[in-house]
């Protein structure tokens, strides 16, 4: 496998455009019910949270989040017998799947009030055959805009490869596939 050169600022702008979803699919319904499955749940009512552990699978509308552990924070407010979830903090092999996108990292935070998902540590964002890697990813669920920076939180050593993408600590790297063109 050959190493990929670090992306330039203009390439990062192209990457954001390439990995954006069509406008109709961008908006996520963060008011939809949140369904979960896990091996264990610990309710901490006085702290207004629940801790899910062991193969956690969370689904909300067309979004899926999987991890080994997720802390669900909720307000003290109960509507219709249900606590109002405000934040999900995930750790341990976190994967977020949206239509046509898959993001992976070591940690993830889904802020339901801000409608933003932030992932940290060896982050990879894939859409189709395009892949971008970095240290931190932020996905705005209203606009579909995904921003990756090269922060080294949980970063791997320079030169490590993952599915043909070279990870360089502190840098954003990636690979864009180019369709075959006639006559070239």
Describe what you observe in this structure:
- By secondary structure, this protein is mainly β.
- It has a single domain (9-175), classed as lipopolysaccharide transport protein A fold, CATH 2.60.450.10.
- The protein is built from two helices and twelve strands, in the order ααββββββββββββ.
- It has helices spanning 9-18, 23-26; strands spanning 35-37, 40-44, 49-60, 63-79, 82-98, 101-111, 116-127, 130-140, 146-149, 160-162, 165-167, 173-175.
- Strands 1, 2, 3, 4, 5, 6, 7, 8, 9 and 12 form a ten-stranded antiparallel sheet that branches.
- It is elongated and about 65 Å long.
- The two termini are 24 Å apart.
CATH topology: lipopolysaccharide transport protein A fold
> What is the radius of gyration computed over CA atoms, rounded to a whole number of angstroms?
18 Å
Unreliable parts: 1-25, 154-168
Measured distance between first and last alpha carbons: 24 Å
Q: Count of DSSP E strands?
A: 12
The name of the CATH architecture is: Sandwich
Strand content: over 45%
Query: What's the helix count?
Result: 2
Report the biggest beta sheet as strand number plus sense, adding barrel if it closes.
Answer: 10 strands, antiparallel
User: Under the CATH scheme, which class?
Assistant: Mainly Beta
């Amino acid at each position: 496998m050959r190493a990929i050169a670090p992306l330039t600022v203009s390439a990062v702008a192209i990457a954001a455009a390439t990995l954006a979803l069509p406008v109709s699919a961008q908006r996520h319904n963060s008011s939809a019910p949140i369904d979960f499955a896990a091996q264990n749940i610990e309710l901490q009512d006085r702290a207004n949270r629940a801790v899910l552990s062991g193969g956690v699978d969370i689904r909300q509308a067309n979004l899926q989040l999987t991890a080994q552990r997720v802390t669900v924070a909720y307000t003290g407010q109960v509507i219709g017998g249900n606590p109002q979830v405000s934040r999900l903090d995930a750790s341990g092999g976190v994967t977020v799947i949206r239509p046509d996108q898959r993001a992976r990292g070591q940690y993830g935070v889904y802020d339901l009030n801000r409608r933003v998902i932030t992932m940290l540590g060896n982050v990879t964002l894939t859409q189709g055959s395009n892949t971008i890697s970095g240290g931190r990813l932020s996905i705005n669920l209203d606009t579909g805009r995904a921003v990756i920076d090269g922060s080294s939180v949980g970063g791997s050593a320079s030169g490590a490869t993952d599915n043909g993408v070279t990870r360089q600590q502190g840098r954003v790297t990636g690979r864009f596939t180019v369709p075959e063109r006639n006559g070239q």
